[in-house]
Amino acid sequence: MFDNPEKLFIILIIALFIFGPQKLIGLGGAMGRAIRDFRSAVRDAQEQFSTAVEEVHKTEDTFSSTEPAALPAPEPVTPTFPMIGGAAPATAAADSSTSGDLDLEGPHSLASEPSSQAVLESLQRKE
Prior knowledge:
Elements: H1 5-19, H2 21-62, H3 90-98, H4 116-126
């Protein structure tokens, strides 16, 4: 805006002619007080912000970062699903009763597809 001092000097002379020497001094003092008040308000806002940040850091330090207690592991569930032929194979019953683990990879698991022989038997029964 004021890239050279001549422009500022011209503006000050115009202001002197418009307001006069007494009012120009009063305007300068009012401008100085306004700038001083503005700076003090900014400084107070910065101090309040920094104290608030410090309080937040203090409260974060007082809380311990404890993790919630873990839930107990669920009991293993033995799946019940219809078997072809009416009875469950002896190996599946023996595996689930002795070890407690489920045989999810066998031919009678829910994740596997039925064998071709089981599909043929079910189709023959429907006819």
